[in-house]
Design goal:
Elements: E1 2-3, E2 8-13, E3 19-24, H1 27-30, E4 36-37, E5 46-51, E6 67-71, E7 74-76, H2 86-92, E8 101-104, E9 108-114, E10 130-136, H3 143-154, E11 165-171, E12 174-180, H4 187-191, H5 202-222, E13 226-228, E14 237-239, E15 245-247, E16 254-256, E17 263-264, E18 268-271, H6 277-282, E19 284-285, H7 287-303, H8 318-327, H9 337-340, H10 345-358, H11 369-377, H12 391-399, E20 410-413
Antiparallel strand pairs: 1-4, 2-3, 2-5, 5-6, 6-7, 8-9, 9-10, 10-12, 11-12, 13-16, 14-15, 17-19, 18-20
Helix pairs in contact: 5-7, 5-11, 7-10
């Protein structure tokens, strides 16, 4: 690849996780011919080409207003993924002070910013727009790979039920992702709080359930890529001003290409309580792994409590409790009192039935998200009978001593799973 302009800076993120900046000086400074070449990036590498802000003789590491992103050998145009100026972001957040911080996640700190002046040659963001800045923690072990993963995936995704990536900022050790601001925070903020859950009547809950299903269906079938989210949970469902849901956080997501239907990993990273049996025990994941997580989330919305915080004398998880109620034809007892008066009995029973189908042990027995969408939209769907989930009971009893009430624990298992077979 050749560049022949006055000044062009290039940042190259390679697979080893290192981050270096390379500057191309004007040819008269180097005593070299005006045209020079730079090797192309390898597959899955990310290169950021940046037009210098001025034609002065001073070098600048500032990522400025004009950009082209090369991802996996493909160009992503400026309007799709602008580069934000680090200095402007620092100024807008009072140098990333705690007072501007919205929260902390696995990626790092999250800040709210109101844009006043951000001029882009193309794709200008309007003044006064509220945005969210996710600042990568320098202590994050997998941070760089996850950062690259989000850029590769979300830059190509545009859908009403997926959170929108507005841009990024890369300078030195500072790496940030810029998203649209979601004023109603995340689903868990309301769902697992006794006072705030009053805002979630059944109509709102059903709209959230259908929106999450549409978002997953888009990832699995309708997007330009086939994507497995791998970390669907209540805290990763963001809510806009009208309580419409958007799936967020694609750090753990994976792309399936061609006829690929399943993949394996020895590093199991997901949240306890949402993890499918085949993923937890064998490191296998597919679209049906997301379906399992969706089923857990659906039951949590109906019951109003986390799967991981559920404890009773007879049941070790929300899934086993829901199954017993379903099997005894007492499914209405699963409904949270805060939505019982506003719900439709027919719609509620249908959603519980769909949830039980999604959390079945076998991948073959779970529906696809396309089937889930049809079931949710149908007035009189024909639903198969779910099978009893044995995995949830077994897993919950094993992890009972490690999960405290209301706590969300993320698994990061770097060990392979050995199955014991008798002689």
């Amino acid at each position: 690849m050749m560049w022949t302009e006055d000044l062009v800076d290039i940042s190259h993120l390679d697979q080893s996780g290192s981050l270096e900046f390379f500057y191309r000086l004007h040819h008269y400074k180097l005593g070299l011919p005006a045209i020079s070449s730079i090797p192309c990036c390898k597959d899955n590498d990310i290169a950021v080409l940046v037009q210098s802000k001025s034609k002065s003789k001073e070098l600048s590491t500032d990522l400025s207003v004009s950009s082209i992103i090369l991802i996996d050998g493909n160009q992503v145009n400026r309007p799709e993924l602008p580069i934000f100026n680090l200095g402007s972001l620092a100024a807008a957040t009072n140098n990333f002070s705690k007072g501007n911080r919205l929260g902390l996640r696995g990626f790092g700190a999250i800040y709210k910013v109101v844009i006043f002046v951000y001029a882009y040659q193309q794709g200008e963001l309007p003044g006064g727009q509220e945005i969210v800045v996710k600042k990568l923690s320098t202590k994050s072990c997998q941070g760089l790979e996850e950062f690259k993963n989000e850029i590769i995936l979300i830059a190509k995704l545009h859908y009403r039920n997926l959170v929108r990536l507005l841009g990024c900022s890369i300078q030195g050790d500072e790496k940030m992702l810029i998203y649209e601001y979601m004023p109603n925070k995340s689903l868990d903020y309301f769902l697992f709080n006794e006072a705030r859950k009053e805002k979630l009547d059944w109509r709102t809950c059903l709209r959230i359930i259908e929106g999450i299903a549409r978002g997953l269906f888009y990832l699995h079938r309708d997007s330009r890529l086939r994507i497995i989210h791998r970390d669907l949970k209540a805290s990763n469902i963001l809510l806009d001003g009208e309580m419409n849901p958007k799936v967020s956080d694609f750090r753990m997501a994976r792309i399936f290409r061609g006829n690929q239907h399943e993949a394996n990993t020895v590093r199991v990273v997901e949240t306890y309580g949402y993890m499918s049996p085949e993923y937890a025990m064998e490191g296998l994941f597919s679209v049906k792994s997301d379906v399992y997580s969706f089923g857990v989330l659906l039951l949590e919305i109906i019951y109003g409590r986390r799967n991981t915080s559920f404890r009773s004398i007879e049941h070790t998880s929300l899934i086993t409790y829901a199954w017993d109620l379903w099997n005894e034809e007492k499914a209405m007892d699963l409904i949270d009192p805060s939505i019982r008066d506003s719900c439709s009995l027919k719609e509620m029973l249908k959603c519980i039935h769909i949830g039980m189908l999604c959390v079945q042990d076998s991948v073959m027995h779970r529906p696809t998200m396309a089937a889930v969408m049809l079931l949710l939209e149908s007035e009189t769907p024909t639903l198969p009978m779910p099978r009893q989930p044995s995995y949830a009971s077994m897993r919950s009893s094993i992890n009972a001593n490690f999960i405290s009430d209301g706590q969300e624990i993320v698994s990061s298992n770097n060990l392979t799973v050995t199955m014991v077979v008798g002689r």
